[in-house]
Write a structure and sequence with these properties.
The chain is an alpha+beta fold. The chain contains 32 helices and 26 strands.
Amino acid sequence: MNSIKDKKYYLMDSDSVVEIFDSNISGLSSDEVKKRQEKFGKNELREKESDPTWKIFLESFKDPMVIILIVAAVIQIITGSVMESLIIFLVLILNAVLGTIQTKKAESSINSLKQMSVPSAKVIRDGEKMTISSKEIVPGDIVLLEAGDYVPSDGRLLEAESLKIVEGMLTGESEPTEKSIHKLDEDCTVGDRVNMVYSTSMVVNGRAKYVCTEIGMDTEIGKIADLLENTDVKQTPLQSNIESFSKKLGVAIVVISLLIFAIQVFRALTHPTGQDIKAVVLNSFMFAVAIAVAAIPEALSSIVTIVLSVGTKTMSKKNSIIRKLPAVETLGSTSVICTDKTGTLTMNKMTAVKYFTYDGSSLISRDVEDKPVLEDISFDKLNSEMMLNYASALCNDSTVSEEGLEIGDPTEVALTVFSDKMGYITNRVRDTFARTQEIPFDSDRKLMSTAHKINGKNIMFTKGAPDIVLSRSVKVLMGENVVDMSSEILEAIKNQNEEYSKNALRVLAFGYKEFNDEILDVDFEDNFVFIGLIAMIDPPRKEVIYAVSKAKSAGIKPIMITGDHKTTAVAIGKEIGIFEDGDLSYTGQELDDLTDEELDKNLEKISVYARVSPQNKIRIVGAWQKKNKVTAMTGDGVNDAPALKNADIGIAMGSGTEVAKDASAMVLVDDNFASIVDAVEVGRTVYSNIKKSITYLFSGNLGAIISILFAVFADWSNPYTALQLIFINMVNDSLPAIALGMEGAEKGVMNRPPRDKNEGLLGGGTLQAILSRGVFVGIAAILAQFIGMKSSPEMGVAMAFTTLLLSRTFQTFACRSDYNTSFGIGFFTNKYVLMAVVVCLTLLGVVLLPPVRPIFMIPAEFSTTNLLTSFGLALASVACMEAVKIIRKNR
């Protein structure tokens, strides 16, 4: 057998393909099969081993801030501060467990692909038909197919009788593909290779015989599996920002801590106090550790996870299920949405929208509308509209139950619904005029005919491609009269057909003829009386037009990527607003001919891609990502999975394959583009809320650091113990930070452009807010320590701690908005903030209880006056924060 890799079998005749594989119509011999199984292996998909759970768990501790905390905790254990260390370790382990569980929840996409494999196949071997496991198929096998079978491998058709196959998992289109055995004349994409069959596609009509050309990972489905395995999962902007920020913060904390340590030791050496040098070094070191603990927001990871979870719950109410938490925030920074057409922008349901008949002077084109049910459907004189309805109902194998269950070819279902809408009721027409004979549809003839007894006459109805029906029509039904088909009438009908085709309508022509009692065969399909045309389309969803407009106003570019034909895609794109004047459209074949430089140059003008391959989709997504755009990709088929995985956020359809869902970060329950735009709004709000939580945490931590640094340079005692700082960071701060994550959307959130994906966590005014608020919190704590030290150093520590805790708690109100005061956005609009503040004040009350005071180094003489002083200083710091907003707003 010759080398067979990457041959284009669809460009060869079937006999040549059989010869290439050293096979024949009687199939391979048993000995030859064994040789080929040894050479090519089994017909199955390979899967890489996933990382073990322990490795995923340990990777959670790679974060620089986590490493610093671990070092600090170990040092505290060595120095005897066991309680503080245990609390730190408990939080770190909890975060690691949560992260591991989240990672393991993402099931393998390749697993889902393997589950789609066909369990058995019918082949011819040693001249006999037999059923084998599909894993045992080898290249060169002669495989048999019939309606209801899944195709077990890729292959070139040898025989095909009325064969229709659904290849949606590869092409993304639900419409069955009509197959033939004739060789093709030019290169084309998978969806246009009508003489090939592909693994995991399904036969819905007819029977066939083919020679196996590819198995396992060499099949089209195998290529997709390979793309999935070799596609790296992209970090979301939030993940990238947090990782980058953690590294920078980690370095800064280490530098500051070492600097403080050096200053303390230098001061002790240059200004001896008689204290043992070892004790001085140890105290200085613990002071530096306290700085590290104060600077690191231990609960940040948990708080971000919780805020994202809140966003997930909100999105679920808007028909969007989040599989990977960071995807909630990613949506908020989305700049480009690459969306499938069928089912997402459209209803995924072929619908008859126009019909027309000849009235003697012109074609009468009408919109399909609901009409009252006709009481009588039997007339002595048949007119063109009635005959068109008879033809659509009778020359049709589909059914629609009273419950709305649709069975059959989508195009025929559309004809059944058409007759029902027109008032004829398909089932009633069929009961009245039973089918007596039929000539089934054939992809070569492109016709289907059925015979019925109507008003005592044998009438054969025929439907098919307009060019075929018109070429065989000799007369035209004009109202209730039959007239000869003239060149003028024929030209008028053809012009109307072309007009509908330009608008991406799928057109079927109908004709009829009377006959005697002959047995029908294909030779009877001639000399028709032309009845009329019915034009169909998969119509856009009504809400999509507004959603596209809303996305554009939010600075998001929607792009259609579909397996459908370019004409249809562009027509739909124009109707819903995706494709505008000056925009470009490309097919997958045309895209392959573009260099990367040419694609980059035209990228922002291309709004529609048609007849695309999985590789095309990855290239499109990658091209936008090179422009630094956060790109979302929707899809439902196996062919979409690699691009879904490669995109910044993959969005699978709820009705789609498990493979697509596994590769995605989000699942759209209602398959509706409008729901994506709603989810973007939630995503923007979630990111805004995360930044509010981060501002809250870091401004509080900055306040603590400022007061500690002041104490160092003022030669005061450390204003806080490590336990006090851990209590504030992980217990007291957690609830307000989470409550800020419950804020509703601010006005105009969808009228702003997407933020730059490289904008750091501290961008967009966040750093300025942290600095100003941190300064106010720090000043309040410094004043508190100064006032307390007049009584004793211990009282100074107690008042600094109490004031810091209260300042950070009341700061929750200031953090609700960067522009409006708490009263400006509505003091009571977020009940969770009020509840969090109440709980924090209660926790302070618990800390101040006599039995608990010693744990937190609060002296017994701490009085109500001291507490009220701390309250006053804390409220003053928050008042200053709100004043800054007012000044900034009035500039």
